[in-house]
Design a protein that fits this description.
single chain; alpha+beta; Arc Repressor Mutant, subunit A; SH3 type barrels; 5-stranded antiparallel beta sheet; 4-stranded antiparallel beta sheet; 10 helices; extended; PafC_HTH; WYL domain-containing protein; CBASS_pafABC_assoc_protein; WCX_dom
Amino acid sequence: MSGSADRLPRLLSLVPYLMSHPGAQVGEVAAVFGLSEKQLIDDLQLVWMCGLPGHTPGDLIDVSWDGGEILIDNADTIARPLRLGIDEASALLVALRMLAATPQLAEVQGTDDALPRVMAKLEQAAGEGAATVSSQVAVDVDAAPDALPRVREGLTKGRRLSLRYYVPGRDEVTPREVDPTRIVVVDGRAYLEGWCYRAEAMRLFRLDRMLGVDVLDVPADPPAEAEPIDVAQGVFRPSPTDELIELEVSAAGRWVAEYYPCEQVTELGEGRLRVTLRARDQDWILKLALRLGDTGRVVAPPAMAEAVRQEAERALALYAHRS
């Protein structure tokens, strides 16, 4: 932790530590914070110039390290250790729950009880508010019953898999025969990658959309042209036949241009963008538009803009009814 980006949080932790350990030795404190003695002295010299507005000697923190013994005074305003806010602790708890739910983690020795202990300590330290907020966030990464063990069996034995797979865009269940190649986790969701004989191409299948998985007594034998799918930029890859959608987003909605592959991005001033991208289906663009809320809107084609408006009205009506 020697970079400038790490220095402020380190100093905010260092001062409370020194206040609770008067007379601590330079070498001991450096070891606690993972620093060299020179790095620690540099930090102490910076602490010595910090304090309350006014910057008179009485306003600044008084710190000395003569003879290797660190003494600190006039630092009562930051004597308490740095605490996470509710939003920070909640985000961390949600991330830990997502990590605990990923299939690969089950294969790592010692993680079965380590993560629950960490989450319990974090909930206790952060307070009831963070635990309540994070518990209301559903992390949907669970596979269908028996899906993960059967997929692993197919991978281990090199056998073809028969799937009953739900396609939400068409609201239908399709049969698939797949030669499995690996399991990947993208954006917290587990996917089976394999050669799909229905599509005659490599495909990714979400484990939590598998309604049934059977291991066939047929060796998995993907064709020579089957290559791993690059998931570095996410799962979604638009097709040239997908419908072209035009969005206008505010500065708060600019993440769309960074998160999704776009055909064209035009600056409109004041941080706004006009974004043109391809939508794989209407449901997908409806969800994106509702997620954007007042930070973006669909402007073309008109039929899609109207569909978004109607969907938003239905959502508001449901909310008004429940409240």
